[in-house]
Design a protein that fits this description.
By secondary structure, the chain is an alpha/beta fold. It has two domains: 22-84 and 369-406, Urease, subunit C, domain 1, CATH 2.30.40; 85-368, TIM Barrel. The chain is 31% helix and 22% strand. The strands form two sheets. Strands 1, 2, 3, 4, 5, 14, 15 and 16 form an eight-stranded mixed β-sheet that branches. An eight-stranded mixed β-sheet has the order 6-7-8-9-10-11-12-13, sandwiched between helices. The longest helix is centred in the middle third of the chain and has 27 residues, at 190-216.
Length: 425
């Protein structure tokens, strides 16, 4: 018993002291000019030997030349500048260590939980945050899990003392996890499984019909919290995120959108390439969550996921690339985009897929996603091509003009043991 308490005490000490020197950045007080860099705007445009100036958290000028008077000048000769990358579907800050149940804050009991808000459970002290942002990811859409309607996500900036500081776009959407309608099940109870799935879908449809009727009432004798929670879907201030993969599942999601008038985004969309015309016709965006995984169907190409971005790009469907892998936890986002370059995308299309496209899908493109005057100064500076694992090295990062500390536990351990063993490089 004594040994157990000793181990628990050490664990607590390690968790409390680890990375205690990585503090949230103070507000920007002086204008900053990043000069002589290759600037990737995020909308496909590239400026060689360009300058970007930002003050009070906002970009004030971008181009071959800009007013740099009274600005702190940072020479970025030979470097590449990009908009900060955006994780469009993540559980950073909600799920710290997968093997420890007490460190999971993404689940809620019950099937219909539209009133669950992920942002209030977001842990700004997560050690994963520092690792991810040192790879250029500055914003993340934090998504709850569990049930059929999991709750409400919020876009968080990966820097802040608490969730109130970190909140970038509160309650931007509600998440519906479509029950699987995977064809070809061979188990004896396949029919029962599918019937249960369709019954759950009908339950959700009935819920929204009742919510619509409730919200149309001029006054209520009794307040229904769950119905109140989905009002943003009906007045289009929130996005309806539907997590599904197969064509039949996506078709149901689109029918939901048409019946209720929801602004809808597909999360997953493995078979989105098969209904590109229908997706485009109904203005449905797609978040592509996985790149390094096997296809769902046995007769699909092994590189199905890698080809999807190019196929959607060619069809004119709005999409973004994500990294929801439980091992990567978002830090390989830019390398997922790099893989898509090997399967047809141009480099600038790949950059746009993790910046401006992601911002459009999340409804925050009016203030971030590209390096344009008037938008937030969410900027990263890399020594080389950020899509290439060999040359990508983030030297500077700014969130709303604040220069972010790019240290993390892995870097600290590297320096510790490099010193211990006398390694010079």
């Amino acid at each position: 018993m004594k040994n157990i308490f000793t181990i628990l005490s050490l664990t607590i000490i390690i968790k409390v002291t680890a990375q205690s020197n990585v503090l949230p950045a103070p507000a920007q007080t002086q204008a900053i000019a990043l000069m002589h860099a290759t600037i990737h705007i995020g909308n496909g445009q590239v400026i060689e030997d360009g300058t970007i100036v930002f003050a009070k958290g906002k970009i004030t000028g971008v181009g071959k030349s800009a007013d740099v008077s009274d600005a702190k000048i940072i020479d970025c000769t030979g470097k590449q500048i990009y908009p900060g990358f955006i994780l469009s579907d993540s559980q950073i800050g909600l799920n710290e260590i997968g093997a420890i149940r007490s460190e999971h804050d993404e689940y809620e009991l019950g099937e219909l939980n539209p009133g669950v808000h992920s942002l209030v459970a977001y842990n700004t002290d997560s050690k994963i945050i520092n690792t991810v942002r040192s790879n250029g990811v500055l914003l993340a859409n934090i998504v709850p899990d569990g049930g059929i309607i999991s709750g409400t996500s919020s876009v968080m900036q990966l820097d802040g003392w608490n969730w109130e500081d970190a909140a970038y776009q509160k309650d931007n959407g509600i998440h519906f996890r479509m029950p699987s309608l995977m064809p070809g099940r061979r188990s004896a109870d396949a029919a029962d499984i599918l019937k249960k799935a369709y019954d759950q879908i009908d339950e959700v449809r009935t819920f929204f019909r009742e919510a619509k009727a409730y919200l149309a009432e001029p006054a209520h004798t009794v307040t229904n919290i769950k119905f109140e929670a989905v009002n943003g879907l009906f007045n289009k201030t929130q996005i309806f995120f539907v997590h599904c993969e197969m064509v039949n599942e996506m078709m149901i999601a689109i029918e939901f959108a048409k019946e209720f008038g929801f602004k809808t985004v597909i999360v997953g969309g493995t078979e989105a390439n098969k209904i590109t015309g229908y997706l485009k016709q109904n203005n449905i965006g797609v978040i592509l969550n996985q790149m390094h995984t096997l296809p769902i169907m046995q007769d699909d190409d092994v590189d199905t996921y890698a080809k999807l971005p190019y196929q959607l790009q060619q069809a004119g469907v709005l999409y973004c690339i994500n990294d929801f892998d439980e091992m990567n936890r978002g830090r390989n986002l830019m390398f997922n985009a790099g893989v898509a370059v090997g399967f047809g995308l141009t480099r600038e299309q790949a950059v746009q897929a993790i910046t401006l496209n992601a911002a459009k899908i999340l409804g925050i493109d009016n203030k971030t996603g590209s390096l344009e005057a008037g938008k937030d100064a969410n900027i990263i500076v890399s020594d080389g091509d950020v899509l290439d694992a060999k040359s990508s090295n983030i030297g500077y990062a700014f969130i709303q003009g604040r220069q972010i500390n790019l240290d993390n536990k892995q870097k600290q351990l590297y320096e510790r043991y490099k010193t211990k063993y006398g390694i010079s490089k």
